[in-house]
Design brief:
- The protein is α/β, with parallel strands linked by helices.
- The chain folds into two domains: about 15-210, Rossmann fold, CATH 3.40.50; about 215-330, Arc Repressor Mutant, subunit A (Orthogonal Bundle), CATH 1.10.10.60.
- The protein is about 45% helix and about 15% strand.
- It has 13 helices and eleven strands.
- It has helices at about 25-45, 95-110, 120-125, 140-145, 170-185, 185-195, 220-235, 240-250, 250-265, 265-285, 290-295, 300-315, 315-330, and strands at about 15-20, 50-55, 60, 65-70, 70-75, 80-85, 110-115, 135, 155, 160, 165.
- The strands form three sheets. It has a seven-stranded mixed β-sheet. The chain has a two-stranded antiparallel ribbon with strand order 3-4.
- α1 packs parallel to α5.
- The radius of gyration is 22 Å and the shape is globular.
């Protein structure tokens, strides 16, 4: 097969290492690997090779229960060109000392350090994002802001800043890798790979993530979108409907009409829903107490917060954490009797 490239080729393969943390998103990792495999196939030579590592060299368990065999213990492999820390939505508490040392050592050696999905949390804890913009999955952003208020967090699909490559995960990994491939081998190859995967357009990093909010801000009329944005910026000290209406240039009555027409809720009900969604994210992704979360989301007392939470989600804040812990600890074994999912195929 003739090489498909409009910017030349690179005979020396780029080594991409994926460091898998228990609970990582298999979809995020697969979305990042498959474009590399397709690039090798279309170029007819090994332009990229990839390996898996884990902290202890043992197989890593994905969030869906599939066990993935790895090639190396982190730090024992040859120097890689890229190192991506891969994590899922459930972050298991652990001593990160060794991981921090290795990540910083790799960075000093010139390795481009990246993260998929929630992996940016571990880069931040290693002080590798202090001077760089970054992104991670929207569901983890509230907790990230609580833990790292000094880091510039973006809601973009992926962010490349200096030699930091952070990605929201999911299918955004495909877009990030297509960007890297286009830089290395040209836009024509990247477009050809996108066609292989039935992708009608390659999204740039500047594209915003779609969040879990019931209504996306960009689908709302401008003044209503501004009002919802103000709500999202003021969780700890909620604004009154009068204040919001004044800031967006509407009367309170017109603001209420807009909310009712486009969301089916009053401004106060919509605001409370946003605050409770924020509280849920903090419960799942931080170790903050119920009292601290109640304060951070604008509830005057812990008991009032718990009552509102139960009304919204059907269970208490405390049971939310218990449910999440059980869902992670009791993952079913991989189907079909496989001992492990082994995609260490560093070959094209």
């Amino acid at each position: 097969m003739m090489p498909i490239t409009d910017k030349g080729t690179e005979e020396c393969p780029q080594h991409v290492e994926f460091m898998l943390l228990d609970g990582f998103s298999l979809m995020s990792v697969s979305s990042a690997i498959e474009p590399l495999r397709a690039a090798n196939r279309l170029l007819s030579f090994e332009a990229y090779r990839w390996t898996f590592s884990s902290e202890d060299g043992a197989a890593a368990n994905a969030s869906n229960g599939i066990s993935v065999n790895v090639d190396n213990r982190l730090g024992n492999s040859k120097q890689s060109d890229y190192l991506f820390v891969c994590a899922g939505m459930t972050l298991v508490a652990k001593d990160q000392t060794r991981l921090n040392v290795i990540l910083n050592w790799r960075s000093r050696e010139g390795c481009r350090i990246g993260a998929l999905s929630m992996g940016a949390v571990f880069l931040a804890r290693a002080n590798l994002l202090n001077d760089a913009r970054c992104t991670l999955h929207w569901e983890g952003q509230p907790a990230f802001r609580e833990e790292f208020p000094y880091i510039q967090l973006s809601n973009e699909l992926y962010v490349i800043d200096k030699n930091r490559y952070t990605c929201a995960g999911g299918t955004a990994g495909l877009d990030l890798m297509l960007h890297i491939i286009a830089q290395d081998h040209g836009d024509l190859l990247a477009r050809s790979i996108a066609n292989q995967f039935q992708v009608d357009r390659i999204r740039t990093g500047s594209v915003e993530q779609r969040s879990g909010s019931s209504v996306r801000l960009d689908t709302l009329p401008p003044q209503l979108g501004q009002a919802a944005g103000l709500m999202m910026q003021n969780f700890e000290n909620p604004l009154s409907s009068t204040e919001i209406a004044r800031k967006v240039g509407l009367s309170v009555r017109n603001l209420e009409r807009l909310f009712q027409r486009h969301t089916g809720q009053t401004p106060a009900r919509y605001y409370k829903t946003l605050r409770l969604e924020q509280a849920r994210d903090l419960l799942l992704h931080t170790s903050l107490s119920n009292v601290e979360i109640a304060i951070a989301t604008g509830f005057c007392t812990s008991s009032h917060f718990s009552a509102c939470y139960r009304e919204q989600f059907g269970h208490s804040p405390s049971s939310e954490r218990q449910r999440d812990a059980v869902s992670f600890e009791k993952k079913p074994p991989a189907s079909g009797g496989h001992k492990g999912y082994d995609e260490r195929s560093h070959r094209g």
